[in-house]
Amino acid sequence: MTMEDIKFVQNFKKTTNDAWLKGWHERNGGNISYRLTEDEVVAVKEFISEDSKYTPIGVTVKNLANEYFLVTGSGKFIRNMTVCLEENAGIIKIDEKGENYKIVWGLINGAKPTSEITSHLMSHSIKKEKTKGAYRVIMHSHTTNTIALTFVLPLDGKVFTRQLWEMATECPVVFPSGIGIVPWMVPGGAAIANETGKLMNKHDVVIWAHHGMFCAGESLDLTFGLMDTVEKSAEILVKVLAMGGKKQTISSQNFRDLGKAFNVHISEDYLD
Questions:
Q1: In sequence order, what DSSP letters do the residues of 144-172 get, joined into one string?
Q2: What would the mean pLDDT of 78-85 be, rounded to a whole number?
Q3: Which residues make Cβ contacts (< 8 Å) with residue 41, sequence separation at least 6?
Q4: I need a labelling partner for 211 at 20 to 30 A (CA). Which of 1, 5, 9, 114 fits?
């Protein structure tokens, strides 16, 4: 057995390929990280090396101490993940203080984890606490229609949430906690990580204005599915706006009825 025969690694490769086929990851755009389970750490022990040096994360994530993550690489192309994973992704380990990481597998030839590693780990830390460890995935993609909407809609989470909920009945069921918006910021550092983290306390979807989307979830499938749902709703909205705007839509009471039928709490923050 090789590293790439292990189930979670295969799932990771499939997710990256699916995201590439969606057109969300031009060139080296976007990044994905997955927090390993205890059993998965045991499964990869024979393949990892603890000899590398630690690198500062840029923020402190104490509850991620000694955790392992499979992450895409900085400057690497998502479309190449299925060609040679160890050149384009790797596994990192967080130190005992939650302040540093080191590469323990992959990212060969001097490669480094995604430049957004600070935002990823900050969001992982918050979601691990909020979900009692259930959430394991953070996915950042350059979702075309969602980005387009950040140029025409107010950069307000309530506006984005309501507009996107109205585009498809399943939306408030799939992302009932709504959407957070980060105004344009320089990516890759502690500042944008902190702003994203604040919103991740409440939302599973955070949009970076004029840049892309951050999604959090329990599994690779659920996180990909969440992003796919938001982006499809954004595509519908773009088409509706191009056709002259809405003539009828789903009402607030309709959403209340939907939440009751599906046993989902739909916040009144987004209803009239």
A1: HHHHHHTTTS-S-HHHHHHHHHTT-TTHH
A2: 94
A3: 68
A4: 9
